[in-house]
Amino acid sequence: MIRNIILASTSTLFGGQYLEYLKDELLIHFSGVKKLLFIPFARPSGISYDEYTNRATCFFKNIGIEVVGIHTVEKKIEAIEKAEAIFTGGGNTFLLVQQLYKFQLLDAIRNAVNNGTPYLGCSAGTNIGGLSMKTTNDMPIVYPPSFDTLGLVPFNLNPHYLDPDPHLKHNGETRETRILEFLSQNETPVVGLREGSWLYIKDDKITLKGNLQARIFEKNKTPYEIPPMTDLSLLK
Amino acid sequence: MIRNIILASTSTLFGGQYLEYLKDELLIHFSGVKKLLFIPFARPSGISYDEYTNRATCFFKNIGIEVVGIHTVEKKIEAIEKAEAIFTGGGNTFLLVQQLYKFQLLDAIRNAVNNGTPYLGCSAGTNIGGLSMKTTNDMPIVYPPSFDTLGLVPFNLNPHYLDPDPHLKHNGETRETRILEFLSQNETPVVGLREGSWLYIKDDKITLKGNLQARIFEKNKTPYEIPPMTDLSLLK
Question: What Gene3D superfamilies would the database entry show (chains A, B) (predicted)?
Answer without folding.
Answer: 3.40.50.880
